[in-house]
What does this fold into?
Amino acid sequence: MKKQTGYITFSAMMAALAALLMLVSYFPYLTYTVPAFAALFIMVAVIECGLKWATLSYLSAAIITLILAEAEAAVLFVCFFGFYPIIKVLLERIKIKPLKIAVKLAVFNASVLLVYLVVMRLMGIDDGFEGYGKYMAYAALVVGNGVFLIYDSALVRLSYWYYYKFHKTVNKWLKK
It folds into this structure.
């Protein structure tokens, strides 16, 4: 199998698996969890095929997800979780650690704002904060930033785990 053919096939498989996993988002209480796990397939595409093919994998999965998955989970995947493994590779190149963390948090907060605008304003889905006070949304954002930092760290650990457990096998299949 030629190298490019292997990349096309593998990135398409990762897109299909991410989109397939996104169908689970119809189960209650999995709206946030499923897009986070679906992003792992994009992470694998980044490791095995590089940024170009992973981006195509993400775009393919995003289109399928927007058509088939639960609306709020689809927006989360498209606006943050799906592209974050790709962006993360670029952000990891920043050498100054506080700056790197600040940029990652800025990307996360911009994505959260985009998700909020799309889901709450365009789709008309209620934010669920009525009756909790006017500062509850800010508290949720602070907690969300903490959870994001845990997620970011987990992506690093999972990418190392994948690389040491499966990369050689996949590498042989892709014939690099």
User: Anything to note?
Assistant: The mean pLDDT is 89. The domain at 3-174 is CATH 1.10.1760 (Arp2/3 complex 21 kDa subunit ARPC3).
